[in-house]
Amino acid sequence: MASSPAVSVPIIDTHVHLYPQSEVETHQWYAEDNPLAKQHSIQEYQTATGAPGNLQGYVAIEVDRKNDNAKDWTLPLQEIAWLRRIVTGQPKPGEGHTADDGRDCLGIVPWAPVVLGSAELEKYLAAVEKEAGLETWAKVKGFRYLLQDKPKGTALSDDFIDGLKLLGRKKFVFDLGVDQHKRGRIQLEEAVEMIDRAHEGVDEEDKVVFILNHLCKPDLTIVNVQTDPSYIAWRTAMFTLSKCDRTYMKLSGCFSEMPEFLRARPAEEILSAILPWLAVVIAAFGPERIMFGSDWPVCTLGLGDEAWKKWRRVVEMTCHMAGLGPEAQTRLWAETAREAYKLDSRPVYKVVDLTRSDE
Length: 359
Fold this sequence. Notes:
This is Amidohydrolase-related domain-containing protein. The protein is an alpha/beta fold. Helices cover about 40% and strands about 10% of the residues. The protein has helices at about 40-50, 75-90, 120-135, 160-170, 180-185, 185-200, 230-240, 260-265, 265-285, 305-320, 325-340; strands at about 5-10, 10-15, 55-60, 105-110, 140-145, 175, 210, 245-250, 290, 350-355. The chain has a 5-stranded parallel beta sheet with strand order 5-6-7-8-9. Strands 2-3-4 form a 3-stranded parallel beta sheet, with helices on both faces. Helix 4 packs across helix 6. The chain starts with 6 loop residues before the first strand and ends in a 6-residue tail after the last strand.
């Protein structure tokens, strides 16, 4: 496979999970033998990325704190307090970040009890604002409530739809986490209906923005994509979702859905194996509605610290295979995220196409 051209573009990593060692046990997924059950803070993230000069920053995504079916907000608010320490440069000893690291946090997407409806959600948003303080609250760009592990129909309840409409009125995005691989096509079908209902009868400026996580978690173990009903259902759903208003896709999370042996292979072989999925996403959404995300540290499972750089390489080659020029690549790597999340302006990073002789 041909190597990708050396195009230098700014990078915004739109999907990073951060947590200190002292709070590891507060997560729903915690188990002593889980490789993720250790500190993953700024220091560890910088080691994983190699801190490249064009990495402008990241969006911190909630990490699924325990919440007693959305009734107990103690630990989700503790997560806000943790992120506030990063943003305001007030680390506790051993938490893996310094007083200067807050500038790299461009946005925050906390958990929110959208399922409880607009009245309870409004109370929660007020609690987050109070816990966050002015500087950190300004970085809160949206909220997430994972649907991938929730009962069928959760996203279609009147309360859930009302909660989404409230987020839209308040100009927050909703990060949508569904899982076709483990839960089947019903999750995709409900996602389409949920978006339609959340936008129905709503003024354009008040429609909530949806940011789809991880290609909606397709089954990347499929070999014969031409006839497999799971792949065909996923492909159909991608084109349907791409027609929805104010809807974006994250190019992220693929390592978790592929066979373990494939994760260990070189980036070139990974790209060849998952190109049928990547090609659909590029064709359906285009670079103007796709954004790069690493899903760190989840991406490290079975890979270790090489994962971030390997996924970056896969995305670089995807851009090359799709024939994306420097401006389109800048959209995918950074500007789509800046638009969708309404991230604060940062110094412009000059795009340089090193394949051109006149640069």
